[in-house]
Amino acid sequence: MTIQVAVCGPGECTAREEADAREVGRLLAERGAVVVCGGYGGVMAAVAAGARAAGGTVVGVLSRADRWQANPDLSIVIPTGIGEARNAVIVNSGDAVIVVGGSWGTLSELALTMRGGRAPVVQLGGWRVLDRDGTPLPGVRHAASPRQAVELTGLWP
Amino acid sequence: MTIQVAVCGPGECTAREEADAREVGRLLAERGAVVVCGGYGGVMAAVAAGARAAGGTVVGVLSRADRWQANPDLSIVIPTGIGEARNAVIVNSGDAVIVVGGSWGTLSELALTMRGGRAPVVQLGGWRVLDRDGTPLPGVRHAASPRQAVELTGLWP
Amino acid sequence: MTIQVAVCGPGECTAREEADAREVGRLLAERGAVVVCGGYGGVMAAVAAGARAAGGTVVGVLSRADRWQANPDLSIVIPTGIGEARNAVIVNSGDAVIVVGGSWGTLSELALTMRGGRAPVVQLGGWRVLDRDGTPLPGVRHAASPRQAVELTGLWP
Amino acid sequence: MTIQVAVCGPGECTAREEADAREVGRLLAERGAVVVCGGYGGVMAAVAAGARAAGGTVVGVLSRADRWQANPDLSIVIPTGIGEARNAVIVNSGDAVIVVGGSWGTLSELALTMRGGRAPVVQLGGWRVLDRDGTPLPGVRHAASPRQAVELTGLWP
């Protein structure tokens, strides 16, 4: 079965995050992975554009029940109609999850993946989570570049 | 954007329903449509096999959060983890919905599509719904063959 | 733990269905059961009003993420935000499910309950489901009055 | 309509978190608020026990489709069957959300509430979220005691 990687990030992002997401999409597509994302703007649109430009397949798992405002680079659209609960569906769909940049919705996706414990999580930029003693929580892998983010998934050893 | 057709049917089905579902899958794949289904056995496995054999793309929208018992012919797997509520996701993902055979889960999918009012519903075999006066409910299109089922979606005029 | 009964029915209903739903709500409240419903108009509003007037507790499991258009007789509001997928949540919440009247949304709830196989389903009026040979599907209990609907749940032997 | 407060926290918690959650439950029940929680162990069980002992009403919004391992102090049980996606339902059900202690599931609830932007979020202990520059994210209200947590909701001015 084809490898699937969920890529999460804010709908409004910086130019740097957009460039990073586009590069992540390209690298995943080159490795033959299907990209799963939230299907709207910002990081979601950038990773989709990057993967599509490299000939890849991109699935958009939308919060809405219709295709309104879905980005144009999706190969397949899943309009769940379940609102933000669809964040759980996105992360369940990834053999690994790559997080680019930070937002509350993005953080919920990172947290749901760690809660599930099924897939490795790689973070590129974005927010940091500390426990009550101020110690960074273990488990999330931190990357310094799109290339390292893809490598740290461990899916292409 | 690629046309997507949701195909619904029981996880345990008759040989006739299995053959019909396989043929529906083949015909959809030949027309370039992506098939969306529930991803497990019976009609779901048959439509996936038919589409895959014809070079098509098949998305399995699973009830479970993992890939346990997903059928082997899925191109893309969405392990929603939302249980039977995923039936709403399947039907939202179709530009049309084709129902092959009958079961309570299948009927819930037919009913949710009609409730949404967004996509045409075509039924091949399966159960019948009557209103309180014994009159068949209007709106569902009834097909006598896989080919007619695909035609009645109205997606390829 | 308190007995919970899910009561399902169309958002737009006849005067007869409204009266029936109100009476079902009253009878359930008198027996100390919590009523779970979809929280909007029609049968949902009537069963809530009937239960509330008899001093009962009513939970509205809404499709929307906010309380917009929720009926005023709900004791507790669960704005799920998961759209029509919330129908699965309503029926999972009942030790029995009573269906008053018919609509596509209502039928999806009846079908999801039968699919789950956990709770008895009683139907008062509404639509009929036949298998491909025209035989009524077994399993659903048919009541002729609100009182019989409550009795047929089997929860108060 | 009755005020509803969602209380979130880990299923496995420290003695301090358990005592805090119990006290939060008691204080909310004394103010007449309905407590909504995840319905299982740890903080969820403690807040339910505290509220119940003070005569309050507690709703457990479960991930599972049945009542398995639900805690015994729930007044009302909503077995959603939608897995961890139910975290979105819990937080949508609160006029305010109080977070006691930290875990990945708990963090997903905090993040989903902040994403929704509808309800104030108060945190008692637990994890900290910093942006990429190491600055604590604004918006979450931090309490030093159960009493302050309830006050900071702003629901009882």
UniProtKB/TrEMBL annotation, chains A, B, C, D:
Species assigned in the record: Streptosporangium saharense
GO cellular component: cytosol
SUPFAM superfamilies per record: MCP/YpsA-like
NCBIfam families, per the entry: TIGR00725 family protein
Protein known as: TIGR00725 family protein
Lineage top rank: taxon: Bacteria
Listed InterPro entries: CHP00725, LDcluster4, LOG_family_nucleotidases
